[in-house]
Write a structure and sequence with these properties.
The chain is an alpha/beta fold and 361 residues long. The chain is built from 14 helices and eleven strands. InterPro entries: Glyco_trans_2-like (IPR001173), Nucleotide-diphossugar_trans (IPR029044), TPR-like_helical_dom_sf (IPR011990), TPR_rpt (IPR019734).
């Protein structure tokens, strides 16, 4: 059976670090925690799990800190997590099975990263990230912000998932790092250009975000998934600026990079829905339900293939007074989010409508 070093970077994580370590303490053979300047009781909490606590002066560069953390590992494989990550019980069992069965010819193992959950506790957004890597391969982290681990060799996609369960979030940290890089005259990589644009969008700097998304897309150096995301983010910028024409064009632009994604279909459906062009809206929402995403697609938002198009089709068929069909789509949406207030309101509404025999009038 392989041996595993857990390597983490932390700062002021007293509220969540214990929860994270409790979920993995019996799954790994060594815990290495690199503190980048905590002023709370993070170190005291960590000390209950390990004495391998290291200090790293924060230099506004996440990859540098993560690479330092990897240097502390002594076991065959390295697992990395963030302080607000957790392995839930089902995934703890999957991790145990993976550890027992993994052969040492595998260089890097990816796991799903569950980013958000709906009101029912179901995963509605996830990505894949390489989480477990051979130490002797000396894979390196790259990027001051939104860093990524550059891996190669024999790769394996596992069924283990890490759940992201944050309690708080530092909303200004990343954008400030990017601004410092730009002000220092450093040329942003295409990837950093994309993520800087995301930060600008999140902080309401829509015109500036558009500028950086265009720089990213016109460079033609981006990963196809980031290109598609950039198109959708551009559409968001134009939506905030009430620029309907460019919003529409940005959505269509995503078709340059791959077949239409369910998210694009839902966005187009909403565009036509807002104009009361109900037939066109219905077409695109139905396409969102027809298109199948690859099981291991790197980015997934399940709402665009489940409850969202059904709920919108419910509204659209209600507009057309096709109440039986509208109710059917509400029931299908209910199979994913049964306790949502909108779903429950619609149930009562259609019970009244259909009881009076008003369908297809």
């Amino acid at each position: 059976m392989i041996s595993i070093s857990l390597c983490m970077i932390v700062k002021n994580e007293e509220d969540v670090i214990g929860r994270c370590l409790e979920s993995v303490k019996d799954l790994v053979d060594e815990i290495n925690i690199v503190d980048t300047g905590s002023t709370d009781s993070t170190k005291q909490v960590v000390a209950q799990f390990t004495d391998r606590i290291f200090d790293f002066k924060w230099i506004h560069h996440f990859a540098a800190a993560r690479n330092f953390s990897f240097q502390q590992a002594t076991k065959e494989y390295i697992l990395w997590l963030d302080a607000d990550d957790v392995l839930l019980e089902e995934d703890r069992e999957k991790f145990k099975a993976l550890k027992e069965s993994l052969t040492s010819d595998i260089d890097a193992i990816s796991m799903n990263y569950h980013l958000s959950f709906d009101h029912e506790g179901n995963v509605d957004a996830l990505i894949r990230r390489y989480r477990l890597v051979r130490r002797d391969k000396k894979f390196q982290w790259i990027g001051a912000v939104h860093e990524y681990l550059e891996v190669g060799g024999m790769l394996f996609d596992s069924d283990v998932a890490v759940s992201h369960l944050p309690l708080t979030h530092d909303h200004t940290r990343n954008i400030e790092i990017y601004k410092q890089l730009v002000e220092s005259g450093e040329t942003l990589s295409p990837r950093d250009t994309f993520y800087f644009a995301n930060e600008l969008l999140d902080h309401g700097y829509y015109e500036e975000a558009i500028h950086y998304y265009e720089l990213f897309l016109t460079s033609k150096l981006g990963w196809v998934e980031d290109n598609i995301r950039a198109c959708f983010k551009l559409a968001d910028c134009f939506s905030h600026l009430n620029d309907t024409e460019n919003n529409f064009s940005a959505i269509l632009r995503s078709f340059e990079y791959d077949v239409p994604r369910p998210e694009a279909c839902c966005r187009l459906g909403y565009h036509f829905m807002e104009q009361n062009r109900n037939d066109e809206a219905i077409f695109w929402y139905e396409q969102a339900l027809v298109i199948k995403q690859k099981p291991n697609a790197p980015f997934q938002n399940k709402s665009f293939t489940t409850w969202l198009p059904h709920l919108q089709l419910c509204v659209l068929y209600d507009r057309l007074q096709q109440y039986e069909l509208a109710n059917a789509h509400n029931e299908l949406a209910s199979s994913f989010i049964p306790n949502d207030p909108k779903i429950l309101h619609n149930k009562r509404y259609f019970e009244s409508i259909l009881a009076n025999g008003l369908d297809d009038i």
